[in-house]
Give the backbone structure.
Amino acid sequence: MNQEYVFKLCDEEREYLRRELSQIQYDPTGTTSYITEVRMAALRSMPRRIVDCLNNQKASLNPFPYIVFENLPIDNTVTFTPDPQVFTPLAKEGFLSENLAIAIGSLIGEPYSMLHEGHDIVNNLIPSIKDKKEYTGLGSEVELDFHIENAALKFMGDRNYSPCGLALTGVRHDPEKPLTRIADAREALRLLSKNDIDQLCQPLFHIKVPYRWRLSIPGELQETDLVPLIQGDIDLPEVAVAFYPDMVRPANDFAATALRHFHDAIREVSFGIDVTPGRLIYIDNRFTLHSRDSFNPSFDESGSPLRWVQRVIVAPNLWNHRNLNQVKDRVFNPVTM
Ligand SMILES: [Fe+2]
């Protein structure tokens, strides 16, 4: 992990942020007035160096691949882990983790959610026994290999529905420590031959939408036409790829070889990080991939999973989402795409 991208609050900064954010009632529907309230509190109470960094990320002239925030305030008492799709205020005392994820996201862009990913503006990633073999945030038994979040959604007609970034923070911690892994695609591309990069830059790949999406969108939208995996300058590329099974279909053997080499290079440059309470990681989804290890979830005495991670996805603005079904203020259902 490059320390240039790590911001650690001192205890005094942490407590100031706690005082400001703990006064805000979380609104799971994500109304713009709630987002504004968090944004104003964040601007008042976050250290200037962090506000500067988030503004740079928003402007995107020289974005960081990822940003790690340490020693953040945490919710005092977490009583149990809820059903990930049911808003359960009793599960913990207060909404610091939600407000923190929204604070970071809202200083970079506009937080939102897609219904398949989470019914509330802040998504809960909790291992589910029923879904343990799933290649989603609710799975556990299978490794969720490196991917750009919702990579196929960069190519929905003339619109890009893929988030520009995502924030992950811990609420409860599983002692098994399944790591989230991060890989800056630019470092991986530096390891590849010119020939491989040429293949990746050409429209030689079909990308599928994530598993859960396939249940409710028309067949012709379940995978892209032939598209390139890399667009633009390779020093600051727009990347669209997912390496878990059956997600990218190359058009020929040369493209398949380049894809395999890209996967190897991504693994080589990656590092792991434990998403614990008090730590938040922002991942730039335009050129940074992430993965999650497979693990055996641990449970407390009442059978409640110990791993509870929260996620917020962010778009530069929500103009592209205007034709989707707006289920809640900032929760969209892609069924009308
Ligand atoms: Fe993901």
Remarks:
- The chain has a mean pLDDT of 92.
- The two ends are 38 Å apart (CA to CA).
- DSSP finds eight helices and 17 strands in the chain.
- The longest helix spans residues 253-269.
